[in-house]
Amino acid sequence: MIKKTRKLIVGNWKMNPLSLEEVKEITDAVKRTIKKTKQVTAVLCPPAVFLAEVTRAVQNTKDVYTGGQNTFTEAQGSFTGEVSPMMLASVGAGYVIIGHSERRKMGETDEQISAKVRLALEAGLSVIVCVGESVRDAQVKYLEVVSGQIKSAFAGVTVKQLPQMIVAYEPVWAIGKDSKGPMTPRDLYEMTIFIKKVLSELYEQKIAMKTQILYGGSVNAETSAGLVKEGEVSGLLVGRESINPEGFAGILRAVDAL
Ligand code: PEP
């Protein structure tokens, strides 16, 4: 497990890139950049088919780890097309993203997310669980949405397992090229406080406060440092810019310079 003081920059490559050549290009750029940084740790989450390759490529590079983008509710068996968290761990991944909004949109439920979280923890992985509202309503119902997702994802997570849990706050309206762009650092700060409050209702406050909270949604090199600093988060979950070698390097450098 990484030292908590370093900022965690997670790259969710989604269903990209299409070739091993491009995988190498993105991975090599991260390796080159991270060697010149002191305050950041990168976690690369490529498509499952590339995971072993990327993990091998970074295994001798300090402060670069890998993770899966999803996993399954069962450890093994007749589940065509699925990937078990034990398999992710077996190829050397240290992390897994669970409950990404793109998977929730495909029908993934809070119950399935909770089951995936519990099994991934059993497999020894650090879990990056994604939460976030689709819309910001005037009645402030979005806070209930986020607290409900957190409570469900953490159901069954013991105090002992808590250091393996990372919350990625990703407002759905801020994700992707058709979004309005990232939220303001000030609004993020309020959400960080709120998420800590929700976790403090579930675990002893002193322990709950140590849980790492990441922000995700249209982050780029220009916005990254402000979001981390003023938003008081432990790091970022980066989508599009994670497959842009220059863009991701810019984010690593900007957060490292904080
Ligand atoms: C994401 O999908 O997790 C994400 C943060 O995407 P983007 O950075 O492209 O908005």
Characterization of this structure:
The protein is an alpha/beta fold and 258 residues long. Strands 1-2-3-4-5-6-7-8 form an eight-stranded parallel barrel, surrounded by seven helices. Helix 6 links the parallel strand 5 and strand 6. It starts with 6 loop residues before the first strand and ends with a helix. The structure holds phosphoenolpyruvate. The site of phosphoenolpyruvate has 12 residues, from strand 8.
What composes the largest sheet? 8 strands, parallel, barrel
Give me the side-by-side strand order of the main sheet: 1-2-3-4-5-6-7-8
- Compute the average pLDDT: 96
Percent helix, as a range, is 40-55%
Which shape, going by the Cα principal axes?
A: globular
Taking all Cα atoms into account, the compactness measure Rg is: 17 Å
Extended strand count: 8
Number of helices: 10
Task: State the secondary-structure class.
Answer: alpha/beta
Pattern of helices and strands: EHEHEHEHHEHEHHEHEH
Low-pLDDT regions: none
Q: What compounds sit in this structure?
A: phosphoenolpyruvate
Distance between the termini: 22 Å
Strand content: 15-25%
